[in-house]
């Protein structure tokens, strides 16, 4: 089981998604702000292209 996590940076408002095996925090790829929590997560089917 994997999750696609949706993030929105609190510092620069950049939005991005990432696929993880858990609903975990991520760092903003734009400004580098740490530990942004996903505002939404959805299941990813195995084998789905990313
Ligand atoms: Zn940012």
Residues in β-strands, percent: 35-45%
Ligand names: zinc ion
Structural class: mainly beta
- The pLDDT mean sits at 92
The total tally of domains equals: 1
Using only C-alpha atoms, the radius of gyration works out to: 11 Å
Widest sheet: strand order? 2-1-3
Task: Give a short account of the largest sheet.
Answer: 3 strands, antiparallel
Low-confidence runs (pLDDT<50, min 5 residues)?
none
Instruction: For the record, give the distance between the C-alpha atoms at the N and C termini, rounded to a whole number.
Output: 15 Å
Helix content: under 10%
Tell how many strands the DSSP assignment holds: 3
List the secondary-structure elements in sequence, H or E. EEE
Overview of the molecule:
The chain has 50 residues and is an all-beta fold. It is built from no helices and 3 strands. The chain is elongated and about 30 Å long. The chain has a 3-stranded antiparallel beta sheet, with no helix packed on it. 0% of the residues lie in helices and 36% in strands. It has one domain (2-44). Strand 1 and strand 2 form a beta hairpin. Zinc ion is lined by residues 9, 11-12, 14, 28, 30-31, 33.
């Amino acid at each position: 089981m994997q999750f696609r996590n949706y993030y929105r940076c609190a510092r620069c408002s950049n939005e991005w998604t990432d696929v993880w095996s858990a609903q975990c925090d991520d760092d903003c790829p734009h400004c580098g702000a740490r530990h942004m929590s996903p505002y939404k997560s959805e299941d990813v089917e195995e084998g789905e292209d990313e």
